Amino acid sequence: MDLELSYPSPHATLPGVADHLRQLLPLLDWLALQGLAVENWYAPAAEAGSPEYPACPPAFAGHAPTAAAIAVLHDEDAMRDDDRLRPLALWSGEEDGAGAFLLHTLGTQRYGEPCHLLLQSQFLPQLEQQDTLLALVSALVQWWPASRVEIGISSPQEEDAGHDENALLDDPLGAIWMRYLPRVIDASEVPGSNRLHAVHAADGSRLGTLVLAVDTDRFDPANEAHRQAARELAAWQ
């Protein structure tokens, strides 16, 4: 599963690293319900394996950012020397088995930089179920004012090829199963026989619409009919 979310930055300047990590806790708590415990996320240091960073430190302990992770991310900030953007990566600790990768990039209003969230998982069937993903998108747009959300499901071969955050989502031939936009969408606007799912705020007000390329419990990237519907949704703006 590959999910990408974009939203306008609310930040005049970048928050501290610890605050940045705390912004991810609602999502990590939600993912914990799917089997990815908050304490099992790690901050992958750019220099991991060196004497200074012998291992990737846990990002959280007792539901709070760890001093080790904060130190690693502070050092990465210093190496980047860029106050416009901060990409903060977390990894769920599995190299060859089921796991997930998270990249949250904060931008600043001063430079007109939006914020982005990338969540990738492999071999986690619960994160490839329609009902689960509908619930995830509905939760995400409560936490961040998304200007768009796109979800793709890759084949095992594509997953094994590594983390390419743009391969599925930007390729018009990619498998975009779901697309969220923060507006009301009518069925006549979108191609094919898509399912439209209204997304609401906690107070019941309408936030936007989630468009599904195919209305199925799981998207099958090997199914040509599914892929064709995904191509049409990818091309639709």
Structural summary, described in words:
This protein is α+β, with helices and mostly antiparallel strands. The protein has seven helices and ten strands. The protein has helices at residues 17-23, 25-32, 67-80, 130-143, 156-160, 167-170, 224-235, and strands at residues 2-7, 60-61, 64-65, 86-91, 99-106, 115-122, 148-152, 176-181, 195-200, 206-212. The strands form two sheets. It has an eight-stranded antiparallel β-sheet. The relative contact order is 0.15.
Strand segment count? 10
Structural class: alpha+beta
Whole-number radius of gyration?
Answer: 18 Å
Q: Largest beta sheet, briefly?
A: 8 strands, antiparallel
Short description:
The chain is of the alpha+beta class. Helices cover 27% and strands 24% of the residues. The protein has helices at residues 17-23, 25-32, 67-80, 130-143, 156-160, 167-170, 224-235, and strands at 2-7, 60-61, 64-65, 86-91, 99-106, 115-122, 148-152, 176-181, 195-200, 206-212.
Q: What order do the helices and strands come in, and which of them pair?
A:
Layout: E1 2-7, H1 17-23, H2 25-32, E2 60-61, E3 64-65, H3 67-80, E4 86-91, E5 99-106, E6 115-122, H4 130-143, E7 148-152, H5 156-160, H6 167-170, E8 176-181, E9 195-200, E10 206-212, H7 224-235
Antiparallel strand pairs: 1-6, 1-7, 2-3, 4-5, 5-6, 7-8, 8-10, 9-10
